[in-house]
């Protein structure tokens, strides 16, 4: 390694364990490092959420990461959680092939659906996207994910706070002792290594990463540019667009987008 180079970040470590005799899967991580990256990114794009909203997004990031760590390596999970009170949408995603976690929160122009809704998109390499939608009650992020597990995964899962930014997810596996799972609380989970036999299954690492770039934003604008360029730009020479996954803002000039249309059409014709 070049001495002038900074060592790569090891990323957020998530450990999964099998709880023997209970037939349950336990995923755990301390999200302090990921939250630092999240706040640095928020500063970079000029965002600052209300404390309550901020906590909801952080809990959703923890939940989707622990969920992702318990899923196959070729799977991506993208959740949009719509809350009525407060009226907002929380988007989070865990992309296992790129070991990437990202998310953002929407409070403007949020449609009032009349109920809380949990949308889960599941993408596996080489397969079509699968979506499920579940309604839930309240404004607790972890309870909404537990509801999703019950309805869509057809098995229970529970979330616990092991420390201030240290969270645990325990999900049922075949022949799980569901009465034991239902009776757990935060204190019991803190002592599981003393009361239960835990077998380490895997260690995974995740980074705060979206992967968006100007090329992807050009592709997003491409259909509109082809159908209604005047409606897109009006009298302006550029248009601003935000990445729907992370909120990064991009300024796209008309000239750049016109060139992208020509390049795309030439590629399709070859």
How does this model look, in words?
By secondary structure, the protein is of the alpha+beta class. The protein folds into 2 domains: 12-208, Hsp33 domain (3-Layer(bab) Sandwich), CATH 3.55.30.10; 214-269, HSP33 redox switch-like (CBS domain Like, Alpha-Beta Complex). It is built from 9 helices and 12 strands. The strands form 2 sheets. It has a 10-stranded mixed sheet. A two-stranded antiparallel ribbon has the order 11-12. α7 crosses α9 (254-269). The N and C termini lie far apart (42 Å). Residues 1-7 have low confidence and may be disordered.
Condensed summary:
By secondary structure, the protein is an alpha+beta fold. It folds into two domains: 12-208, Hsp33 domain, CATH 3.55.30.10; 214-269, HSP33 redox switch-like (CBS domain Like), CATH 3.90.1280. It is 35% helix and 33% strand.
Q: Which architecture of the largest domain does the CATH hierarchy give at level 2?
A: 3-Layer(bab) Sandwich
**Secondary structure tally: strands:** 12
The overall pLDDT, averaged over residues, is 91
**What Rg, in angstroms, do the CA atoms define?**
21 Å
- Apparent shape: elongated
Strand order of the largest sheet: 7-6-3-4-5-10-1-2-9-8
CATH topology of the largest domain: Hsp33 domain
Largest sheet: 10 strands, mixed
- Overall tally of domains: 2
Helix content: 25-40%
| Distance linking N and C termini | 42 Å
SSE sequence, one letter per element: EEHHEEEEEHEEHHHEHHEEH
Q: What proportion of the residues form beta strands (DSSP E)?
A: 25-35%
